[in-house]
Amino acid sequence: MSAPFGGGGRAAGGLPRLPTPPSGWPIGSYATYGEAQHAVDFLAEKEFGVADVTIVGVDLMLVERILGRLSWGRVLGTGAVSGAWFGLIIGLLLGMFNNQGFAWQPMIGGLLLGILAWTVFAAISYSMSRRDFSSASQLVAGRYDVLCQPRSAEQGRELLAQLALGGRPAG
Hints:
By secondary structure, this protein is of the alpha+beta class. The chain has four helices and three strands; from the N terminus they run βαβααβα. It is elongated.
């Protein structure tokens, strides 16, 4: 079966076009992404074919870290500052492309319009939300498995065993 737009089932670089479960055999499991990344770096240093390797986050969790309490003053102030920067940039660009040389009026107009618009949008957004705090969300995994295609999984497992022993060859 061919893809509706041609090109088969894989994009450039051999990656699947659609979300696809990973394939391969597990050659290592790590508590953090940094440890899994270090393991793949180690494999690369040992000239292992890392194109056969995939890092898979298992037991995914959405973690929402609370940054602070929101108030009308904070919401309106943040909206005004964001609008000021945006309006200033737009006004600056309009002022630079003025036929009579640089003009200050577009910059000041953009600044004032940006402050007004962003403050209004921030107020509407805050009044419609039911949250009195700001937060940042992050997708994290309970563990990170390193998978490898079967053709080189055993060699990868042996190299990662060396890494676990402190980088010394096993044996």
